[in-house]
Each structure stands twice: as structure tokens, then as C-alpha cells.
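In response to the reviewer comment on reproducibility (Comment 2.3), we provide here a single inverse folding case reported in full, input and output, so that an independent group could reproduce the run without further information from us. The C-alpha cells appear first.
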């Protein structure tokens, strides 16, 4: 049984991306750092549940992957995409709380969870014709994009108007 720290990478992208509370999809790369405590109970639990697979991080990952993905999904579903981005530490801590208990059954201890990449899933990777989450997400994306276009146009218009007004005022003074 290996006592070293194992890094388990969990990418979620495209159709496998996490669905957030605002029905957007989040492409995310996360890393889970786990190890086996040097105590009899954990070593026995790992030997029973993992067997010879304890020494190979790929085999361990295959056994615990659904636990890791489930924790990511559970927490992502409670936060908006914006919150996931701005509160990554909170997100990672919430995931860590869920996973730590689940891994204990396998004799494993979770050291930490990191989020190395987070971005909105591109709309082209979403299926708004057959998936209600994606349909709502695409509607949200379009509404936000269009609202920002209007606001940018208003800023540009108001800026140009202010410049013209200043030019007219200067011409009148001359």
C-alpha cells in the first residue's frame, strides 16, 4: 500500500461540464490530492476496498472518480457560474467537505482540492434543442450578451454625444 500523496485530476468539459445554479455549464479542471494515513484502521480499510490498486493512482482514480464528480456536481448546482469563479476557495472547501467523508470509507485522506481551470462552456458545446438545462443556459447567455451589447452601444453613443457637444461649445466660444 502506497503512503505517498496521489494527485487525481478530474476534468469536466463540454457535455460533461458541471451545471450551475443559473443553468450554465462550467468547464472545470480540478485536482484532488489524497494519501493514506499511517494508521492501522486506514491501511486495513484501503487494503479491503482498494487491494493492490492502492499503488496506482490511475486505478485509485477509477475507483473513486464517481465520488469526486458527484461532489463537484453537488456543489456546482448550488452556485452560479459567477460565484464559482469569484469564490473558488469556497467552492473547493465545500467539495472537500463532501469528498473527505466519502474517501474515509476507502481508508484515504483528502489533503486538498484545487481548481486549476474554470470557464463557461462554449455555447457550441451545449445542446439547447434536446436538453432543458442547456436551453435555459443558452437563453441566459444570450440575454447577458445582448444586454452588454446595448450597454456598450449606449456608452459609445453618450461618449460621442459628449464629444460633439464639447466641439460645438468650443466652436461657439471661438
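Designed residues, in position order:
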Amino acid at each position: 500500500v502506497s503512503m505517498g500523496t496521489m494527485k487525481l485530476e478530474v476534468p469536466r468539459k463540454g457535455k460533461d461540464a458541471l451545471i450551475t445554479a443559473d443553468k450554465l455549464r462550467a468547464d472545470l479542471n480540478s485536482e484532488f490530492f489524497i494519501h493514506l494515513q499511517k494508521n492501522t484502521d486506514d491501511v486495513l480499510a484501503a487494503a479491503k476496498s482498494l487491494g493492490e490498486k492502492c499503488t496506482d493512482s490511475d486505478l485509485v482514480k477509477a475507483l473513486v472518480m464517481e465520488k469526486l464528480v458527484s461532489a463537484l456536481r453537488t456543489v456546482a448546482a448550488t452556485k452560479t457560474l459567477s460565484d464559482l469563479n469569484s469564490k473558488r476557495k469556497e467552492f473547493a472547501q465545500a467539495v472537500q467537505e463532501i469528498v473527505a467523508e466519502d474517501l474515509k470509507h476507502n481508508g484515504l485522506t483528502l489533503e486538498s482540492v484545487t481548481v486549476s481551470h474554470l470557464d463557461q462552456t462554449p455555447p457550441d458545446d451545449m445542446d439547447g434543442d434536446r436538453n432543458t438545462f442547456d436551453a435555459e443556459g443558452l437563453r441566459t447567455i444570450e440575454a447577458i450578451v445582448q444586454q452588454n451589447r446595448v450597454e456598450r452601444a449606449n456608452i459609445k453613443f453618450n461618449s460621442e454625444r459628449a464629444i460633439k457637444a464639447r466641439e460645438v461649445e468650443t466652436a461657439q466660444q471661438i
